[in-house]
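Lab manual, section 2.4: Encoding a predicted structure.

Procedure: take the sequence of the chain (224 residues), apply the prediction step described in section 2.3, and record the output as structure tokens. A sample record is shown.
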Amino acid sequence: MEVTQTIFKDNVLLEIVARLLIAFFAGFIIGFERKMRFKEAGIRTHSIVCIGACLFTLLSVYAFEGSDPARIAAQVIPGIGFLGAGMIFYHKETIHGLTTAAGIWTTAAIGMAVGSGWLIIAAVATVIILLVQYVLHMNVKAFHTKRFVKINLVFLDKTGTECDKLKNFFGVSRFDKISAKNTEDGIVYNVVISSETVISASDIYRIIEQNPAIISIARQDDDF
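Recorded output:
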């Protein structure tokens, strides 16, 4: 009862509502940028995470008078860690979802900052995240390593010469990753090539047409 009276005193309720709305707005704009890049976690996920982190922080400050506010707020960090871990998956020799998981984690930190009343810090952090996500997507050579596109190849080698032929074709000296299995028709290789060249759908058709030994080809862009 005493806690309820404190909330309604001196416009505390308005401040709490305002912080929740600010947290929603911060999560919304971060999620909007992710949605525009067709990522799994978009507006709803980032907004809910930011509001939830903010609410937990507000509860730790106002709902448990006399206790250490950091005890509840600190539980947000491992909780978001579990959520982020569920977004990371390993597929075809490549890890996906790291940037999305990191974004969710940082969005929760922004929500906690808003809940703690650090509004300027939260605003600056939000702007920085947006700049990082936007600027590092720009087609500027300095922002990318020389080899940022991974090509996954599965091909059949009957004569023992296909590996060298494909290395020459893609202009690489080695395969990044390689696995092989013996079959009745020959050895089937599953390899990963790193290349600066962005391969389009028409390029894939041309590559397969020119290299009949290739069983499948897939382009795996880095997860920014």
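Check your result against the sample. The radius of gyration is 25 Å.
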